[in-house]
């Protein structure tokens, strides 16, 4: 299937590792010219250097999502070059915490980086998409927005707010040819999930291998997902072929979420 993505322009946040890197690489393999943004430039350069001949270009952009001035500078540069067709909002997750223990400062600081700043960046880049009558806004959240994950209160709460924003935005820009969707990963085998499993093992006083095995056993597919499996869904939603999908929450979790 021709996804109609060749020579499109994308900005992918958090593109140095995990889901962000997998999405950025998947888009580049389809011929998209990708601006890959993250704090770790070397990590982006490492995967970009392995792309096959004929892939889209990858521009490495150092970016700290807590730095609003840097976000605005990036938006200014991209808009001066014509803007982007595809925006992938992907942020790191906050530290584990219960709802009882999370402090006000934890909520405010993480909300700014994970939510308010990506709302701002999206607002900056949307007008060019609307003017062209084509655009894709994908935001990576978590399966915790549908089935809250214990000890991840900050993530559950902040990402749920992002879902409300995304759904509202989708209705406002749909007639301009811009789709807005949410991607909800379950347990995808990334460094972030390894870190969460390690923290859970330390709390329980168990080997991390036992914690990971138990988590995998609870998934109907019996395993963690691969980042490429997640990225394949993102690339499709970013494509011409997904033109009638908007305002949706898409689960990529091996069936782990129990709600209908």
Automatic annotation (TrEMBL):
Q: Which Pfam families match?
A: adh_short_C2
Would you say which domain of life the source belongs to? Bacteria
Residues forming coiled coils: none
**Lineage of source species:** Bacteria, Pseudomonadati, Pseudomonadota, Alphaproteobacteria, Hyphomicrobiales
Show the PANTHER family listed in the entry. Answer: 3-OXOACYL-(ACYL-CARRIER-PROTEIN) REDUCTASE (PTHR42879), NADPH-DEPENDENT REDUCTASE BACG (PTHR42879:SF6)
The record's SUPFAM superfamilies line, in alphabetical order, gives:
NAD(P)-binding Rossmann-fold domains
The name on file for this protein is Short-chain dehydrogenase
Q: What family does the Swiss-Prot or TrEMBL record give for this protein?
A: Belongs to the short-chain dehydrogenases/reductases (SDR) family.
């Amino acid at each position: 299937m021709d996804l109609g993505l060749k020579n499109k322009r994308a900005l992918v946040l958090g593109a140095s590792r995990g889901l962000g890197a997998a999405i950025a690489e998947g888009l580049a393999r389809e011929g998209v010219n990708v601006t890959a943004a993250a704090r770790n430039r070397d990590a982006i350069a490492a995967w970009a250097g392995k792309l096959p001949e004929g892939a889209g270009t990858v521009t490495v952009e150092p970016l700290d999502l807590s730095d609003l001035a840097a976000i605005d500078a990036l938006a200014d540069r991209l808009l001066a070059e014509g803007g982007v067709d595809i925006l992938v909002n992907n942020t790191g997750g906050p530290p584990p915490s219960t709802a009882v223990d999370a402090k006000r400062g934890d909520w405010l600081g993480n909300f700014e980086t994970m939510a308010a700043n990506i709302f701002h960046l999206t607002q900056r880049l949307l007008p060019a998409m609307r003017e062209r009558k084509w655009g894709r806004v994908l935001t990576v959240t978590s399966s915790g927005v549908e089935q809250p994950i214990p000890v991840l209160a900050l993530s559950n709460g902040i990402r749920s707010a992002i879902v409300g924003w995304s759904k509202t935005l989708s209705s406002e820009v749909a007639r301009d040819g811009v789709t807005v969707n949410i991607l909800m990963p379950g347990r995808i085998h990334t460094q972030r999930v390894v870190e969460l499993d390690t923290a859970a093992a330390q709390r329980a006083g168990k080997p991390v291998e036992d914690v990971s095995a138990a988590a995998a056993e609870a998934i109907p597919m019996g395993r963690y997902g691969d980042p490429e499996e997640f990225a394949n869904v993102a690339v499709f939603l970013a494509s011409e072929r997904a033109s009638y999908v908007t305002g949706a929450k898409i689960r990529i979790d091996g069936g782990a979420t129990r709600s209908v």
